[in-house]
Protein backbone atom coordinates (compact mmCIF):
# COMPACT_ATOMS: atom_id res chain seq x y z
CA UNK A 1 0.00 0.00 0.00
CA UNK A 2 -1.88 -0.55 2.26
CA UNK A 3 -4.59 -2.33 0.82
CA UNK A 4 -8.04 -2.10 1.67
CA UNK A 5 -10.54 -1.86 -1.10
CA UNK A 6 -8.74 -0.32 -3.94
CA UNK A 7 -5.37 -1.21 -5.20
CA UNK A 8 -4.02 1.76 -3.54
CA UNK A 9 -5.80 0.80 -0.47
CA UNK A 10 -4.30 -2.47 -1.26
CA UNK A 11 -0.95 -1.01 -1.62
CA UNK A 12 -0.61 1.90 0.71
CA UNK A 13 -3.91 1.87 2.44
CA UNK A 14 -3.93 -0.25 -0.19
CA UNK A 15 -1.47 1.48 -2.08
CA UNK A 16 -2.19 4.89 -2.01
CA UNK A 17 -3.29 6.00 -5.27
CA UNK A 18 -5.08 4.45 -8.00
CA UNK A 19 -3.16 7.22 -9.69
CA UNK A 20 -0.37 5.11 -10.79
CA UNK A 21 -2.46 2.86 -12.78
CA UNK A 22 -4.74 3.63 -15.59
CA UNK A 23 -7.77 1.50 -14.89
CA UNK A 24 -7.76 -1.19 -17.54
CA UNK A 25 -11.31 -1.88 -18.59
CA UNK A 26 -12.43 -5.43 -18.23
CA UNK A 27 -9.21 -6.62 -16.64
CA UNK A 28 -10.50 -7.12 -13.13
CA UNK A 29 -11.04 -10.73 -12.22
CA UNK A 30 -12.39 -12.51 -9.18
CA UNK A 31 -10.19 -14.80 -7.16
CA UNK A 32 -12.10 -17.70 -8.58
CA UNK A 33 -11.14 -16.68 -12.10
CA UNK A 34 -8.38 -18.04 -14.27
CA UNK A 35 -5.00 -18.28 -12.57
CA UNK A 36 -1.72 -18.27 -14.41
CA UNK A 37 0.81 -20.88 -13.49
CA UNK A 38 4.21 -21.40 -14.90
CA UNK A 39 6.02 -24.00 -16.94
CA UNK A 40 6.56 -27.27 -15.13
CA UNK A 41 9.84 -29.01 -14.69
CA UNK A 42 10.07 -32.75 -15.19
CA UNK A 43 9.29 -33.45 -11.56
CA UNK A 44 5.89 -32.54 -10.20
CA UNK A 45 5.60 -29.52 -7.93
CA UNK A 46 4.93 -30.53 -4.36
CA UNK A 47 3.38 -27.45 -2.72
CA UNK A 48 0.63 -25.24 -4.10
CA UNK A 49 0.92 -21.53 -3.37
CA UNK A 50 -1.86 -19.07 -4.19
CA UNK A 51 -0.18 -15.72 -4.79
CA UNK A 52 -2.22 -12.53 -5.13
CA UNK A 53 -0.68 -9.33 -6.50
CA UNK A 54 -1.90 -5.82 -5.73
CA UNK A 55 -3.03 -4.66 -9.16
CA UNK A 56 -3.51 -5.69 -12.75
CA UNK A 57 -0.43 -7.32 -14.27
CA UNK A 58 2.30 -4.75 -14.96
CA UNK A 59 6.05 -4.24 -14.89
CA UNK A 60 5.89 -3.71 -11.13
CA UNK A 61 5.08 -7.43 -10.93
CA UNK A 62 7.67 -8.42 -13.51
CA UNK A 63 9.94 -10.47 -11.26
CA UNK A 64 7.12 -12.75 -10.20
CA UNK A 65 6.04 -13.37 -13.79
CA UNK A 66 9.68 -13.93 -14.71
CA UNK A 67 9.95 -16.57 -12.00
CA UNK A 68 7.01 -18.36 -13.58
CA UNK A 69 8.32 -17.96 -17.12
CA UNK A 70 11.77 -19.28 -16.21
CA UNK A 71 10.50 -22.16 -14.07
CA UNK A 72 12.07 -20.81 -10.88
CA UNK A 73 9.08 -21.62 -8.67
CA UNK A 74 8.84 -25.11 -10.12
CA UNK A 75 12.54 -25.59 -9.41
CA UNK A 76 11.75 -24.92 -5.74
CA UNK A 77 9.04 -27.57 -5.78
CA UNK A 78 6.22 -25.04 -5.89
CA UNK A 79 3.05 -24.94 -7.96
CA UNK A 80 2.36 -21.20 -7.92
CA UNK A 81 -1.01 -19.85 -9.03
CA UNK A 82 -0.54 -16.13 -9.64
CA UNK A 83 -3.68 -14.02 -9.43
CA UNK A 84 -4.01 -10.37 -10.35
CA UNK A 85 -5.36 -7.88 -7.85
CA UNK A 86 -7.52 -4.94 -8.82
CA UNK A 87 -9.47 -1.94 -7.54
CA UNK A 88 -12.22 -4.04 -5.99
CA UNK A 89 -9.98 -6.69 -4.48
CA UNK A 90 -8.97 -6.41 -0.82
CA UNK A 91 -5.82 -8.47 -0.65
CA UNK A 92 -5.41 -8.43 3.11
CA UNK A 93 -8.98 -9.52 3.64
CA UNK A 94 -8.54 -12.41 1.20
CA UNK A 95 -5.26 -13.42 2.85
CA UNK A 96 -6.69 -13.48 6.36
CA UNK A 97 -9.83 -15.18 5.07
CA UNK A 98 -7.81 -18.03 3.60
CA UNK A 99 -8.42 -17.29 -0.09
CA UNK A 100 -4.73 -16.55 -0.75
CA UNK A 101 -1.49 -17.83 0.76
CA UNK A 102 0.84 -14.92 -0.04
CA UNK A 103 -0.02 -11.41 -1.20
CA UNK A 104 1.82 -8.26 -2.19
CA UNK A 105 1.41 -5.99 0.81
CA UNK A 106 2.60 -2.63 2.03
CA UNK A 107 4.30 -1.82 5.32
CA UNK A 108 1.68 0.63 6.59
CA UNK A 109 -1.11 -1.79 5.82
CA UNK A 110 0.77 -4.61 7.54
CA UNK A 111 1.44 -2.57 10.67
CA UNK A 112 -2.20 -1.48 10.80
CA UNK A 113 -3.19 -5.14 10.53
CA UNK A 114 -0.90 -6.03 13.43
CA UNK A 115 -2.52 -3.28 15.48
CA UNK A 116 -5.84 -5.02 14.81
CA UNK A 117 -4.21 -8.30 15.91
CA UNK A 118 -4.51 -9.92 12.49
CA UNK A 119 -2.13 -12.89 12.07
CA UNK A 120 -0.03 -11.55 9.17
CA UNK A 121 3.70 -11.19 8.63
CA UNK A 122 6.03 -9.81 5.95
CA UNK A 123 8.79 -12.14 4.74
CA UNK A 124 10.55 -10.06 2.09
CA UNK A 125 10.35 -6.85 0.05
CA UNK A 126 10.73 -6.90 -3.71
CA UNK A 127 11.09 -3.09 -3.76
CA UNK A 128 13.44 -1.26 -1.44
CA UNK A 129 11.18 1.78 -1.29
CA UNK A 130 7.79 3.11 -2.31
CA UNK A 131 7.28 4.37 -5.86
CA UNK A 132 4.98 7.15 -4.69
CA UNK A 133 5.86 10.80 -5.14
CA UNK A 134 4.63 14.16 -6.38
CA UNK A 135 4.66 15.35 -9.98
CA UNK A 136 5.22 19.06 -10.54
CA UNK A 137 5.84 21.53 -13.30
CA UNK A 138 9.43 22.42 -14.09
CA UNK A 139 9.66 25.52 -11.86
CA UNK A 140 9.78 23.36 -8.72
CA UNK A 141 13.21 22.19 -7.54
CA UNK A 142 12.38 20.22 -4.40
CA UNK A 143 9.50 18.92 -2.31
CA UNK A 144 10.16 21.73 0.14
CA UNK A 145 9.30 24.25 -2.60
CA UNK A 146 5.72 22.95 -2.53
CA UNK A 147 4.93 24.40 0.88
CA UNK A 148 1.81 26.50 0.38
CA UNK A 149 1.25 25.23 -3.18
CA UNK A 150 -1.97 23.43 -4.12
CA UNK A 151 -1.40 19.66 -4.29
CA UNK A 152 -3.92 17.13 -5.55
CA UNK A 153 -4.00 13.97 -3.41
CA UNK A 154 -6.25 10.92 -3.06
CA UNK A 155 -8.15 10.31 0.16
CA UNK A 156 -5.81 7.45 1.08
CA UNK A 157 -2.91 9.92 1.27
CA UNK A 158 -4.14 11.13 4.64
CA UNK A 159 -3.45 7.74 6.23
CA UNK A 160 -0.17 7.11 4.44
CA UNK A 161 2.29 9.64 3.01
CA UNK A 162 0.58 12.97 3.73
CA UNK A 163 1.29 12.91 7.49
CA UNK A 164 4.92 12.21 6.64
CA UNK A 165 5.01 15.22 4.28
CA UNK A 166 3.53 17.39 7.03
CA UNK A 167 6.12 16.15 9.51
CA UNK A 168 9.03 16.56 7.10
CA UNK A 169 8.21 19.71 5.13
CA UNK A 170 5.59 21.52 7.19
CA UNK A 171 2.81 21.04 4.65
CA UNK A 172 -0.73 21.80 5.81
CA UNK A 173 -4.05 20.14 5.07
CA UNK A 174 -5.50 23.35 3.62
CA UNK A 175 -3.15 23.16 0.64
CA UNK A 176 -4.62 19.88 -0.58
CA UNK A 177 -7.43 19.21 -3.02
CA UNK A 178 -8.95 15.97 -4.25
CA UNK A 179 -7.16 14.03 -6.95
CA UNK A 180 -9.79 12.54 -9.27
CA UNK A 181 -7.36 10.47 -11.35
CA UNK A 182 -7.66 12.94 -14.21
CA UNK A 183 -4.44 14.68 -15.28
CA UNK A 184 -6.14 17.48 -17.20
CA UNK A 185 -6.27 19.93 -14.24
CA UNK A 186 -2.52 19.49 -13.77
CA UNK A 187 -1.84 19.93 -17.48
CA UNK A 188 -3.75 23.23 -17.61
CA UNK A 189 -2.64 24.81 -14.31
CA UNK A 190 1.12 25.61 -14.16
CA UNK A 191 0.95 26.16 -10.38
CA UNK A 192 -0.64 22.81 -9.55
CA UNK A 193 1.17 19.72 -8.26
CA UNK A 194 -0.23 16.24 -7.79
CA UNK A 195 0.55 12.88 -6.33
CA UNK A 196 1.80 10.22 -8.69
CA UNK A 197 3.59 6.98 -9.25
CA UNK A 198 7.04 7.16 -10.79
CA UNK A 199 6.07 4.65 -13.49
CA UNK A 200 2.63 6.10 -14.30
CA UNK A 201 1.82 9.83 -14.22
CA UNK A 202 5.15 10.98 -15.71
CA UNK A 203 4.57 8.52 -18.56
CA UNK A 204 1.16 10.08 -19.26
CA UNK A 205 2.68 13.56 -19.13
CA UNK A 206 5.35 12.48 -21.59
CA UNK A 207 2.69 11.17 -23.96
CA UNK A 208 1.01 14.58 -23.82
CA UNK A 209 4.30 16.45 -24.34
CA UNK A 210 4.02 18.16 -20.95
CA UNK A 211 7.44 18.74 -19.29
CA UNK A 212 7.35 17.69 -15.64
CA UNK A 213 9.50 16.91 -12.65
CA UNK A 214 8.87 14.02 -10.33
CA UNK A 215 9.95 13.91 -6.69
CA UNK A 216 10.11 10.45 -5.20
CA UNK A 217 9.28 10.53 -1.50
CA UNK A 218 11.91 7.90 -0.80
CA UNK A 219 14.64 10.28 -1.94
CA UNK A 220 13.75 12.47 1.04
CA UNK A 221 13.53 9.60 3.50
CA UNK A 222 9.99 8.21 3.24
CA UNK A 223 10.70 4.83 4.86
CA UNK A 224 8.22 2.11 3.78
CA UNK A 225 9.16 -0.78 1.56
CA UNK A 226 6.61 -1.84 -1.03
CA UNK A 227 5.68 -4.97 -2.96
CA UNK A 228 6.20 -6.62 0.40
CA UNK A 229 5.60 -10.39 0.40
CA UNK A 230 3.01 -10.98 3.09
CA UNK A 231 1.58 -14.22 4.43
CA UNK A 232 -0.23 -15.44 7.52
CA UNK A 233 1.55 -16.76 10.57
CA UNK A 234 -0.27 -20.08 10.21
CA UNK A 235 0.79 -20.58 6.58
CA UNK A 236 4.36 -19.70 7.52
CA UNK A 237 4.38 -22.12 10.45
CA UNK A 238 2.94 -24.94 8.36
CA UNK A 239 4.99 -24.29 5.20
CA UNK A 240 8.34 -22.72 6.13
CA UNK A 241 10.21 -24.43 3.30
CA UNK A 242 7.61 -23.37 0.74
CA UNK A 243 7.82 -19.77 1.95
CA UNK A 244 11.60 -19.86 1.80
CA UNK A 245 11.46 -21.28 -1.72
CA UNK A 246 8.89 -18.74 -2.83
CA UNK A 247 10.95 -15.83 -1.54
CA UNK A 248 14.15 -17.19 -3.09
CA UNK A 249 12.56 -17.86 -6.50
CA UNK A 250 10.81 -14.47 -6.49
CA UNK A 251 14.03 -12.59 -5.87
CA UNK A 252 15.85 -14.62 -8.51
CA UNK A 253 12.96 -13.72 -10.79
CA UNK A 254 13.47 -10.03 -10.08
CA UNK A 255 17.19 -10.31 -10.73
CA UNK A 256 16.44 -11.90 -14.09
CA UNK A 257 13.64 -9.47 -14.97
CA UNK A 258 15.75 -6.40 -14.36
CA UNK A 259 18.36 -7.78 -16.74
CA UNK A 260 15.99 -8.98 -19.50
CA UNK A 261 12.24 -8.42 -19.03
CA UNK A 262 11.17 -10.28 -22.16
CA UNK A 263 9.93 -13.59 -20.67
CA UNK A 264 8.07 -11.92 -17.83
CA UNK A 265 6.49 -9.29 -20.07
CA UNK A 266 5.05 -11.97 -22.32
CA UNK A 267 3.17 -13.48 -19.38
CA UNK A 268 2.14 -10.04 -18.09
CA UNK A 269 0.42 -9.43 -21.43
CA UNK A 270 -1.29 -12.81 -21.24
CA UNK A 271 -2.88 -11.85 -17.94
CA UNK A 272 -3.41 -8.23 -18.93
CA UNK A 273 -3.87 -7.88 -22.71
CA UNK A 274 -4.52 -4.14 -22.29
CA UNK A 275 -0.97 -3.55 -21.07
CA UNK A 276 0.93 -1.79 -23.85
CA UNK A 277 4.55 -2.35 -24.82
CA UNK A 278 5.49 1.31 -24.42
CA UNK A 279 4.15 1.38 -20.85
CA UNK A 280 6.05 -1.81 -19.99
CA UNK A 281 9.25 -0.42 -21.51
CA UNK A 282 8.90 2.91 -19.69
CA UNK A 283 8.16 1.27 -16.35
CA UNK A 284 11.02 -1.21 -16.66
CA UNK A 285 13.45 1.60 -17.46
CA UNK A 286 12.26 3.71 -14.53
CA UNK A 287 12.51 0.76 -12.13
CA UNK A 288 16.08 0.29 -13.30
CA UNK A 289 16.93 4.00 -13.19
CA UNK A 290 15.86 4.44 -9.58
CA UNK A 291 17.29 1.05 -8.53
CA UNK A 292 14.16 0.10 -6.62
CA UNK A 293 15.04 -3.61 -6.73
CA UNK A 294 18.81 -3.61 -6.32
CA UNK A 295 19.46 -0.26 -4.64
CA UNK A 296 19.57 0.81 -1.02
CA UNK A 297 20.40 -2.01 1.37
CA UNK A 298 19.98 -4.48 -1.49
CA UNK A 299 23.25 -3.26 -2.99
CA UNK A 300 25.18 -4.97 -0.23
CA UNK A 301 22.63 -7.30 1.40
CA UNK A 302 20.79 -8.67 -1.62
CA UNK A 303 17.45 -8.33 -3.37
CA UNK A 304 14.45 -8.65 -1.08
CA UNK A 305 16.25 -7.51 2.06
CA UNK A 306 14.40 -5.86 4.93
CA UNK A 307 15.89 -4.43 8.11
CA UNK A 308 14.49 -3.76 11.55
CA UNK A 309 15.80 -0.20 11.36
CA UNK A 310 13.68 0.58 8.31
CA UNK A 311 10.56 -0.93 9.83
CA UNK A 312 11.16 1.09 12.96
CA UNK A 313 11.33 4.31 10.95
CA UNK A 314 7.97 3.54 9.38
CA UNK A 315 6.53 2.69 12.78
CA UNK A 316 7.87 5.94 14.25
CA UNK A 317 6.35 8.24 11.65
CA UNK A 318 3.02 6.44 11.90
CA UNK A 319 3.01 6.82 15.70
CA UNK A 320 4.00 10.48 15.43
CA UNK A 321 1.19 11.04 12.94
CA UNK A 322 -1.27 9.23 15.24
CA UNK A 323 -1.81 6.58 12.59
CA UNK A 324 -0.57 3.72 14.78
CA UNK A 325 -0.84 3.07 18.51
CA UNK A 326 2.53 3.27 20.29
CA UNK A 327 1.77 -0.06 21.96
CA UNK A 328 1.52 -1.92 18.64
CA UNK A 329 3.88 -4.92 18.53
CA UNK A 330 5.55 -3.65 15.36
CA UNK A 331 8.39 -6.18 15.46
CA UNK A 332 5.90 -8.99 14.89
CA UNK A 333 4.96 -7.46 11.53
CA UNK A 334 8.00 -8.90 9.76
CA UNK A 335 10.77 -11.45 9.82
CA UNK A 336 14.13 -11.12 8.10
CA UNK A 337 14.79 -14.85 8.35
CA UNK A 338 13.98 -15.57 4.71
CA UNK A 339 15.99 -12.74 3.14
CA UNK A 340 18.95 -11.98 5.39
CA UNK A 341 21.17 -14.73 3.97
CA UNK A 342 19.90 -14.87 0.38
CA UNK A 343 22.54 -12.50 -1.03
CA UNK A 344 20.93 -12.44 -4.48
CA UNK A 345 22.73 -9.48 -6.03
CA UNK A 346 21.55 -7.54 -9.05
C-alpha-based Rg, rounded: 19 Å
Order of helices and strands: HEEHHEHEHEEEHEHEHEEHHHHHH
CA distance, first residue to last residue: 25 Å
Please state the overall shape, judged from the principal axes of the Cα atoms. Answer: globular
Counting structural domains, the number is 2
Tally of alpha and pi helices: 14
Query: What is the typical, i.e. mean, pLDDT?
Result: 89
Strand order of the largest sheet: 1-3-2-4-11-5
Here the CATH topology of the largest domain equals: D-Maltodextrin-Binding Protein, domain 2
CATH superfamily of the largest domain: Periplasmic binding protein-like II
Poorly predicted segments: 1-43
- The assigned structural class equals alpha/beta
Helix content: 25-40%
Main sheet characteristics: 6 strands, mixed
Percentage of residues in DSSP E strands: 15-25%
Detailed description of the structure:
- It is a single chain.
- By secondary structure, the chain is an alpha/beta fold.
- It has 2 domains: 233 residues, Periplasmic binding protein-like II (D-Maltodextrin-Binding Protein, domain 2, 3-Layer(aba) Sandwich); 89 residues, Osmoprotection protein (prox), domain 2 (D-Maltodextrin-Binding Protein, domain 2, 3-Layer(aba) Sandwich).
- The strands form 2 sheets. Strands 1-3-2-4-11-5 form a 6-stranded mixed β-sheet, with helices on both faces. Strands 8-7-9-6-10 form a 5-stranded mixed β-sheet, with no helix packed on it.
- Strand 7, helix 6 and strand 8 form a beta-alpha-beta unit.
- Helix 2 packs across helix 10 and helix 2 crosses helix 11.
